[in-house]
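In this section we walk through a basic example: taking a raw amino acid sequence and producing a predicted 3D structure, encoded as discrete structure tokens. The instruction is simple. Fold the sequence below.
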Amino acid sequence: MQDWEWEVADPFRLDDYLNAYQGGELSDDERFTLMETIIQAFDDLPGPLEADERWQATLSILDENIDLHAYSVWYWSDLEYELGDETWRVTPFLRKLVQKHQGRLDPQSESQDQDGGEPDDARESPS
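The resulting token sequence is shown next.
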């Protein structure tokens, strides 16, 4: 089974997934994989995500653990598409996290300083 973390996602088991995630017994690798399942389950969940307190809690978990879940946030943000075209239901929410953590998620921003230019140590020194 390829991409099993998405295929086994069951929106009716979200409480189980979140309890396991927050139980403190999982390694970072396990939490990463479980978060993929959680996001997929929310994407499959009927009804508006905005009204689900568990979704808001999940967004907080992602925000607080952005270093661990940077790939997932970036992937599910589906930045190559305009919103509404071929994006997932979770995409608009995760794009907000991408915007908030742009400096940490964008590999090109590491080579730039706060002003958008090169870091001081990369500039040529006057001769």
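Looking at the output, two observations stand out. Residues 111-127 have pLDDT under 50 and may be disordered. The two ends are 61 Å apart (CA to CA). In the next section we compare this with other chains.
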